[in-house]
Amino acid sequence: MHKKGFIFDLDGVIVDTAKYHFLAWKKLANSIGVDFSEAQNEQLKGVSRVRSLEKILAWGNKTLSEAEFSGLMDLKNDDYLSYINKMDESEILPDVTKTLDVLIEKGQAIALGSASKNATPILQKVHLLEKFEAIVDGNDVSKAKPDPEVFLIGAKLLKMKPEDCIVFEDSVAGVQAANTANMISIGIGEEEVLHEADYIFKDFTEMSSDFVEGLISGDIKK
Length: 222
Known about the structure:
The protein has helices at about 20-30, 40, 50-60, 65-85, 95-105, 120-125, 150-155, 170-180, 210-215; strands at about 5-10, 110-115, 135, 165-170, 185-190, 200. The protein has a six-stranded parallel beta sheet, with helices on both faces. The two termini are about 20 Å apart. It has nine helices and six strands, in the order E-H-H-H-H-H-E-H-E-H-E-H-E-E-H. The model has no long low-confidence stretch (mean pLDDT about 95). The protein is an alpha/beta fold. Helices cover about 40% and strands about 10% of the residues. It has two domains: about 5-15 and about 90-215, Rossmann fold; about 20-85, Orthogonal Bundle (DNA polymerase, domain 1), CATH 1.10.150.240.
């Protein structure tokens, strides 16, 4: 039995929480008299909360005191968490559970590698937490993707060598981090965005069982 380490990003790979970030930022922006569009939201993906608020203020040509700035950041997070608290299994993206179950059945090592500081509560809400041997999230890392730190910690926790790990990612920075870590990078999303990935699928429904078998056996390489 070959054993590999499979590391999954959370947002956009397992669940789609990006829509909740959009709703929370839109509410915040509108509350201070700034318009906020889906296109602007795209510019905040993978960007820290502080930097995101700075961008919104710049778009609206607004200035805030340090206390107001800090208060708004807390409000945004509370608002986002109120959406998270309502999540259930219906939020899991297509065939993710099936893929996880196949990997578990075949005795593979599974970790989460996410920038989210809310990764554990989200996995609890959608009842997937017990499927992961290791969780590495925004509370465990000091360097953001494209730095490979999150995936290298994941490999270490799984007791796997980086070159024996496979990463599922939906962001350019995440794919770059996996490539830098010398792991097989599998992009979940659009080919024109994720072209740096070793393999790309629109979602897990497109991934055949033969492909998963090939990853485990080592026939499918970087």
